[in-house]
Specification:
It contains eight helices and five strands; from the N terminus they run H-H-H-E-H-E-H-E-H-H-E-E-H. It is of the alpha/beta class. It folds into two domains: about 60 residues; about 140 residues, Rossmann fold (3-Layer(aba) Sandwich), CATH 3.40.50. The chain is elongated and about 70 Å long.
């Protein structure tokens, strides 16, 4: 027997118990799938709202105090220290929707402007991990530096739950925060690696 598609969601149009069970099971599966889809859409919508809010907050703070957000001075000092590999992280929910090449370009911006050759590795931080350990693990190449940008006023910023402690984890690293108050522009260099590179030269 051919069952019309439009009747599959109803169970009162069939005489046999087998047909009723088939229709009932199909209806339950359809409703469960529909509910799951709605939940997924709502979760995605809430995530988009959070990202939009975070982006607006970043834009507002940058417009209000652009010099605080500038990492030009940090970049200049990292270049003066002779780094050739930069581990860069934009610690913000916004980074989750940005392509790695975009983040790498942001980290490289002032180096390129000053014609300083540098290789950039963009790292996206995640909740539940020690951010400083993650960044150090990515900065094992010779003559490495770390640049960590964050805003503690923004929800889901990893630095809020995992404060920077790079130099405390490894005494060979020296760090300086070029930001103020809740804005972090943390630049770190491996003094042992740099001293070794200088002796080779």
């Amino acid at each position: 027997m051919i069952i019309p598609v439009f009747a599959l969601h109803r169970t009162d149009k069939f005489d046999s118990a087998g047909s009723v069970r088939c229709a009932g099971n199909y209806s339950s599966a359809y409703e469960a799938g529909s509910i799951k889809l709605q939940q997924s859409v709502m979760a995605l919508f809430r995530q988009c709202i959070r990202l939009l809010y975070a982006t607006m907050l970043w834009a507002h703070d940058m417009a209000k105090c652009p010099r605080v957000y500038s990492f030009e001075a940090a970049t200049r000092d990292l270049a003066a220290d002779g780094i050739s590999n930069l581990v860069f992280t934009l610690d913000s929910p916004v980074s989750a929707v940005l392509h790695a090449s975009t983040l790498e370009g942001l980290g490289r911006f002032f180096f390129d402007r000053d014609r300083q050759a540098v290789s950039v590795t963009a790292v996206t931080l995640h909740s539940g991990e020690d951010a400083s350990t993650t960044l150090l693990a990515s900065a094992q190449s010779p003559r490495s530096g770390i640049l960590w940008l964050y805003n503690l006023n923004v929800h889901d910023t990893i630095a809020r739950v995992s404060p920077p402690h790079v130099a405390e984890l490894d005494r060979h690293w020296r760090c300086r925060n070029y930001g103020t108050d809740s804005i972090g522009v943390l630049a770190c260099v491996n003094t042992e690696q740099l001293a070794g590179a200088a002796s080779v030269r």
